[in-house]
Amino acid sequence: MAGRSLKTEAVVLRSMRYGEADRILHLYTADRGRVGAIAKGVRRARSRYGGRLEPFFRLRMELHEGRGELLTVTGAHTVDGHPRLRSDARALDAAARACDAVGRLFETSEPHPAVFNLLCRKLALLETQSGSLGRSSSARRGALAFRLKLMLAAGLAPQLAACASCGEREHLGGFSGAAGGVVCGACEGSSFPFGSEAYGFMTEALGRPLSEAPDASEPALGQVERAISETLEHHAHVRLMPAVGRLG
Ligand SMILES: [Zn+2]
After folding, report:
1. How far, in Å, from the CA of 218 to the mean position of ligand 1?
2. Ligand 1: distance of its center to the CA of 168 in Å?
3. Which residue stretches of the chain have pLDDT < 70?
4. DSSP class of 100
5. Rounded CA separation 57/120 (Å)
6. CA 219 / ligand 1 centre spacing (Å)
7. d(CA 171, ligand 1 centre) in Å
8. 134: alpha, beta or left, given left = phi > 0 and alpha = psi -120 to 50?
């Protein structure tokens, strides 16, 4: 075959049926960012890929790069299939939202190994939390901590140390997505109220490992989610799904 081959680890973000027996995959790779690939013949009963070209699988892949936009899958070996995650509706939903956020925020083939590692850690964490994610607030805390770390990797972390408009360090009671961070009383124009609990969640979530997402009340988490959404809409023109679904 003409073209060249690429070996990389990848997480399957999406997997769609295509034609009689093929699948189109959206992959987030360690070496090539987000890429699209076609896997031929995978839906035949005797496919050598088995069921591993499914969302949330972490794979060691061989891909062939020809002239087309899609790479062709020529090999796939499971690194982690996250089997427990698949049996828990809440973990599955959280994994889908995490993959969706990565795919939207990092949609080019520019490599971001830190983002790949972060996604792998998130999926591994959901695997261990399967069956015990409990109320939706723990899923929401985890999802928001993950999004904040993605923003950091994208160079879009909210400014929290001083007013994002004027640099004032006191009276930071609002958040402005347009300004990209907290704002003081004099700069409140386009902001919404942002309490100390939400502020504490953001600073701690950015500084701690993903597995230690801080605690916060639902109203504070609501402010954090709004701050993240408005910042990303303004500065990345990306609209994410709600951090958690309606599983109760
Ligand atoms: Zn200000």
Report:
1. 27
2. 5
3. 1-2, 134-136, 247-248
4. H
5. 10
6. 24
7. 9
8. left
